[in-house]
């Protein structure tokens, strides 16, 4: 019997937070670093909830957990940096995924300190974005941003899947 003719696994009826986290872990998604200024200090975090929202105007949306260390700084800024990561950016992603590695972030070799927001020099694409709207969504905030500057370098993507980073291509 061909694999596609096999009976599907029995579905779980549970919607517990633990079970739903397992469902979300199996949703492959691109990863991005979102950055901002907090006074004179650059701040940022890794997000896997980013998606394109529209081309005209050029918009993204992404979600940030309210407990994230830089959530409040993001809320106070009119401009944010967004860096879509490629397969060669795994080390940078890991720096921004762990608060223990915060001291390794934003080196001048890897980051440009633009007046509006810190901008990553690597990645598949980078954008300086204006915050258009922030929507309260219980434990998270949904940021809708419009790109005002973009740069890109096509290549294979870095994705989040099953609680790990994977390289495509």
Word description of this protein:
This protein has 169 residues and is mainly β. It has a single domain (31-162), classed as Electron Transport, Fmn-binding Protein, Chain A (Pnp Oxidase, Chain A, Roll), CATH 2.30.110. 14% of the residues lie in helices and 43% in strands. The protein has a seven-stranded antiparallel β-sheet. Strands 1-11-12 form a three-stranded antiparallel β-sheet, with no helix packed on it. A two-stranded antiparallel ribbon has the order 7-8. β2 and β3 (41-47) form a beta hairpin. The radius of gyration is 17 Å and the shape is globular. The protein starts with 16 loop residues before the first helix and ends with a strand. The model has no long low-confidence stretch (mean pLDDT 91).
């Amino acid at each position: 019997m061909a694999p596609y003719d096999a009976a599907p696994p029995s579905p779980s009826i549970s919607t517990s937070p633990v079970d739903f986290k397992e469902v979300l872990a199996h949703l492959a998604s691109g990863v991005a670093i979102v950055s901002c200024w907090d006074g004179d200090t650059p701040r940022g975090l890794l997000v896997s909830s980013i998606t394109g929202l529209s081309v005209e105007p050029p918009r993204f949306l992404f979600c940030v957990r309210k407990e994230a260390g830089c959530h409040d700084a993001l809320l106070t800024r009119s401009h944010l940096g967004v860096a879509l990561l490629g397969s060669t950016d795994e080390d940078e992603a890991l720096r921004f995924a762990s608060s223990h590695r915060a001291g390794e972030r934003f080196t001048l070799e890897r980051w440009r300190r633009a007046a509006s927001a810190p901008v990553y020099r690597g990645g598949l694409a980078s954008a300086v974005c204006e915050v258009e709207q922030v929507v309260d969504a219980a434990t998270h905030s949904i940021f809708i941003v419009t790109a005002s500057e973009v740069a890109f370098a096509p290549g294979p993507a870095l994705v989040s899947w099953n609680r790990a980073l994977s390289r495509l291509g």
